[in-house]
Design a protein that fits this description.
The protein contains two helices and seven strands, in the order ααβββββββ. The protein is of the alpha+beta class and about 170 residues long. The protein has a domain of about 60 residues: SH3 type barrels (Roll), CATH 2.30.30. A four-stranded antiparallel β-sheet has the order 4-5-6-7, with no helix packed on it. A three-stranded antiparallel β-sheet has the order 1-2-3, with no helix packed on it. The longest helix has 21 residues. The protein starts with a helix and ends in a 20-residue tail after the last strand.
């Protein structure tokens, strides 16, 4: 039985190889026309949102990119430094709130209904925190607010009187 199967397999092997050679091979895919997409400069691309205009968008981005320079002056008397913590993030308590380097100090907002004037509410940034002072910056102006250490004021020491009778 095994020999008949083996003989049959050996005899059919050339027939299978001949059938594979005789089968027609499909032709490769030939691209007739390559598609492309181009749009003129003055027309809206169909993939952009409706109503979006390139030039208006670029102009709005240029206006938004310009920094607002506030020409208000900072008075160091308006800021009270309660404590300073030096460390990995240095912190300073200014007017009762903790701020780190690079943070903006919260200022009073204009009353409701009043026009928002950037000159009325300047953006004040904590530039540097050191052991004895904090540097605040608004635009090109830098102000150093010193830390008044009232609790560490040196008291006049009187020499201790040694008791002789003991």
């Amino acid at each position: 039985m095994k020999t008949t199967l083996l003989t049959l397999a050996v005899l059919l092997l050339p027939v299978v190889a001949w059938a594979e050679e005789a089968a027609p091979k499909p032709a490769g895919y030939q691209l007739k026309k390559r598609s492309s997409f181009s749009v003129a400069e003055d027309t809206r691309a169909p993939f952009w949102p409706i109503g979006w205009n390139r030039r208006a968008q670029e102009a709005a981005a240029a206006i938004a990119a310009k920094p607002v320079v506030v020409k208000a002056t900072i008075d160091p008397a308006n800021f009270k430094i309660t404590s300073i913590l030096l460390g990995s993030p240095s912190l300073a308590v200014i007017n009762g709130r903790a701020y780190g380097e690079g943070e903006f100090i919260k200022t009073a907002r204009p009353a409701e209904g009043a026009p928002a004037d950037p000159a009325a509410t300047p953006r004040i940034r904590v530039q540097q925190i050191s052991d004895s002072a904090v540097v605040l910056q608004s635009g090109a102006q830098q102000v150093t607010v010193k830390f008044n250490r009232q609790g560490l004021a040196l008291k006049s020491r009187t020499p201790e009187v040694l008791l002789q009778d003991r």
